[in-house]
Amino acid sequence: MNKDVLLQNLSKLGLPMFVPSEEVDADWTLAEVVKSQDQRLWELFPAVLANVAENYQFSPERIEEQLPNGHKQNFHRLFLASVSLYSFYHLTFSWMNNLKNQLSADDKSQIKIWRNNFAHDRPLVWDDKKMDAERLKKTFQLYFEQSQDVSRRRKERYEELSLAYSLSQIFSPKQIDLFKKKLEGLPLTKTEQEYYSRSVKKKVVALANSELHALARKLLEQ
After folding, report:
1. Alpha-carbon distance 143 to 29, whole Å?
2. pLDDT, tens digit (0-9, with 9 covering 90-100), for 22-60
């Protein structure tokens, strides 16, 4: 296993502050996490799985094909641990619902048990493996908080670009500068104030008209 490649892929799949700029073999990366038997990497598994399944083509079958027999059970248990953790946080994903329908009665029973373990910070145990529930929760919380922060920043950036585009459809670059200066309460020169009153203010008054706004929305909805 190439550990550097694995860690590079994890940074792209499991840490939302990094946006992938190249193709990533998501199934291979998850398989390598399983085979590593590295406790630290296993604690990342629920976060990486959530990111992979939401943003990449994800196939449990392809992952299992890359795992020796001795690791297939670990993958299955890590998957059940992840679903248990999502259930603990009341998180639902379309991909997870489809896969849960394929689980056996024993698997569903195990998910309920481990969900309860998360609620009481009891370890998740199978065979000779033991995972700390509290550490799994903290790792996932960090990922989820970062993911929410990235989503918020993307939304804010989109709104900024949308506003900039809309302004450019109505005002010239010089008028946009004056519009922003006036909005921020910055002083205008006599020439700027005259130009603002003559050219910019009339458009601002029109934009502020609620009836005009309603008519524009109506036209867009037709």
Report:
1. 17
2. 567 888 888 999 999 888 889 989 988 888 877 777 788
On whether both 53 and 110 belong to a single domain, the answer is yes
Q: Which two tokens stand for residue 39?
A: 């406790």
- Given a cut of 90, is residue 116 above it in pLDDT? yes
Together in a domain, 69 and 141:
yes
CA distance 123 to 133: 5
Last residue of a domain, one of 102, 131, 146: 146
Give a three-class secondary structure readout of the chain. Answer: CCHHHHHHHHHHHCCCCCCCCCCCCHHHHHHHHHHHCCHHHHHHHHHHHHHHHHHCCCCHHHHHHCCCHHHHHHHHHHHHHHHHHHHHCCCCCHHHHHHHCCCCHHHHHHHHHHHHHHHCCCCEEECCEEECHHHHHHHHHHHHHHHHHHHHHHHHHHHHHHHHHHHHHHCCHHHHHHHHHHHCCCCCCHHHHHHHHHHHHHHHHHHCCHHHHHHHHHHHHC
Dihedrals phi, psi of 93, to nearest 5 degrees: -130, 145
Residue 66 and residue 31 in contact, taking contact as beta carbons nearer than 8 Å: yes
Cα separation, 175 vs 168, in Å, equals: 9
In a domain, 152, yes or no: no
Number of neighbours of residue 101 by Cβ within 10 angstroms: 7
